[in-house]
Design goal:
mainly alpha, 203 residues
């Protein structure tokens, strides 16, 4: 597969916010079909790496949903969106800065530890099952604006998850992927059982 025209097509598929934040990069040595590093707050660009030798083995609807899902996961990670933990993290950073200027080693350790705990909570939340499921559902919503029905989009994303595991030579789906698969089956109407809130909110 020639990456250039496919990258242009995928950029057109993305929501405008995705085109502004992310960059698609061809990476032939990538052991996965598609991968995106966890976005750190000080990095502006959010690259999405694709192995196009693997990518071509997916159908176009599978590629569409896999790309949209990756973009949606990236978009949802907002380090500077205010909530309790981000507020505590910001307060901890400010407190650490004050302690550094005052040269108080005990205060520096205490404020630094407080900051680390708060930012760790932000990181854990972005890696939670809830975040993963939200990215799937956001991708399906965007796909509906691109001509897919909700059920079709869910089915294509589910088949893409399974196909990617096969292409990558993995023995099976991860625990998180199994949860996502069950949620997608429920959205597509293939299963009456969704994902319980208790599991959805687990880290």
């Amino acid at each position: 597969m020639n990456p250039a025209p496919e990258i242009r097509r995928l950029l057109d598929l993305m929501p405008a916010s995705g085109r502004m934040m992310t960059k698609i990069v061809s990476q032939p040595t990538l052991p996965k079909v598609i991968e995106t590093p966890f976005p750190l707050p000080w990095k502006r660009d959010r690259p999405i790496f694709i192995n196009f030798d693997y990518w071509r083995d997916l159908s176009q609807p599978q590629r569409d949903l896999l790309l949209l899902r990756t973009v949606c996961w990236q978009i949802e990670i907002r380090w500077f969106k205010f909530d309790v933990y981000r507020g505590l993290g910001l307060a901890g950073i400010l407190a650490t800065s004050v302690e550094v200027m005052q040269g108080d080693p005990v205060g520096i350790v205490a404020a630094g530890g407080f900051t680390a705990i708060a930012l760790n909570q932000v990181w854990r939340k972005t890696k939670s099952s809830e975040s993963e499921l939200a990215a799937d559902e956001a991708a399906i919503a965007i796909a509906q604006r691109r001509g897919y029905s909700q059920a079709e989009a869910a089915k294509h994303l589910l088949s893409a998850i399974k196909a990617a595991a096969d292409i990558e030579g993995r023995p099976g789906l991860s625990f998180t992927e199994l949860i996502r698969a069950q949620n997608l089956r429920a959205i597509s109407g293939a299963s009456p059982v969704g994902v319980p809130d208790a599991i959805r909110q687990e880290p």
